[in-house]
Hints:
Pfam families: Pep_deformylase (PF01327). The chain is of the alpha+beta class. The chain has one domain: Peptide deformylase (Peptide Deformylase, Alpha-Beta Complex). Helix content is about 25%, strand content about 30%. The protein has a 5-stranded antiparallel β-sheet, with helices on both faces. The N and C termini lie far apart (about 35 Å). The relative contact order is 0.21.
Amino acid sequence: MILPIVGYGDPVLRKVGVEVTKEYPNLNETIASMYDTMYNACGVGLAAPQVGLAIRLFIVDTEPFSDSDDISKEEAEQLKGFKRTFINAKMLKEEGEEWGFNEGCLSIPDVREDVYRNEKITIEYYDENFTKKTEEFDGLIARVIQHEYDHIEGILFTDKISSLKKQLIKKKLQNIMEGKARPDYRMKFIAKKR
């Protein structure tokens, strides 16, 4: 089921997600709906807060990045087969040089900015079967995971840009809060009352 994506300004995007238990109601359906929603919006990642749930759950499928001309053949192969569900993720390490990449977010349509992140991460999480894993990732896969992990910590990519850039996008962010953004996927806006 395709869910509406929560827009910038909604308080749920600023909450630190609570841990998910095996008994969480309709967890498999929630995960399936999140994948449907992400694919419908042409995204490569989606966190539960983006569909209104303040829980520690996010999904990633980097397949769309595998067609980019800006990456090596090896990285394209990694991206093509990378699809994961992350439950109760805990970032253990972020290391290596920081590198910039132009990021966007389904909750912040029509806003893209260069964000600097570490090139390599080590993360602990449970998969959809509640099997505990600890894995290392680098490159674009690490970046997508870091972006989605930030969501379950109540952090948005716009928090990681300079104050000058924040000023430049202020009107766009205001428009999103007022429900004036018109992406080609379902959204739920906070729509400020005046």
